[in-house]
Design brief:
Elements (H helix, E strand, L loop, with lengths): L1 H17 L6 H19 L5 E3 L2 E3 L3 H9 L5 E6 L4 H15 L6 E6 L4 H6 L7 E6 L2 E7 L4 H9 L3
Parallel strand pairs: 2-4, 3-4
Antiparallel strand pairs: 1-2, 3-5, 5-6
Helix pairs in contact: 4-6
């Protein structure tokens, strides 16, 4: 009983804060949308760079510029958000690439966002990790691998 009275008081007080008899419903809707969009701008981050040695590939042109034309070797992680093994492998690849102080970069490619790029490189399993050096693919593996294989995959080619 006490709880229901408190709740109804809270609802009435909240309603009076949001309703103003001097403003039309259109003005209230406009004000609410301004508040919502301002909140979105401050909390939405659009950077392509994940950290200094890894980045998210935005499109095929970006892939060409940042992976194929790179002067340092690039590990390309072809993954999908819905893929469980990808979620396990991704942080491990980032960590391994980060150990090499910029001598190798990590490009993250979401196959759902860029299916043409996945088809071009014959990605039929996720995760698939390709290593590019001098604009050409030099090695690849598919699926989740152990730490030793991951370490050798990255270190042997740089």
């Amino acid at each position: 009983m006490f709880l229901s009275r408190s709740c109804s008081r809270l609802i009435r007080s909240s309603a009076t804060k949001w309703t103003n008899p001097q403003k039309s419903p259109q003005q209230m809707t406009t004000k609410l949308s301004e508040v919502f969009t301002a909140g979105q701008r401050s909390s939405f981050h659009t950077s392509q760079v994940v950290n200094s040695t890894s980045f998210n590939v935005q499109d095929e042109e970006d892939f060409s510029e940042r992976v194929l034309q790179s002067t340092v070797p690039v590990v390309a992680d072809f993954h999908a958000e819905w893929c469980g093994p990808c979620k396990l492998l991704g942080p491990r690849i980032e960590s391994e690439v980060g150990k090499h102080d910029g001598k190798v970069l990590l490009a993250k490619v979401d196959i759902d966002d860029m299916p043409e790029l996945a088809m071009k490189y014959k990605i039929n399993v996720v995760p698939s990790v390709l290593l590019f050096k001098g604009g050409a693919e030099v090695d690849r593996f598919q699926g989740n691998v152990d730490d030793d294989m991951l370490q050798h995959f990255v270190a042997d080619k740089i």
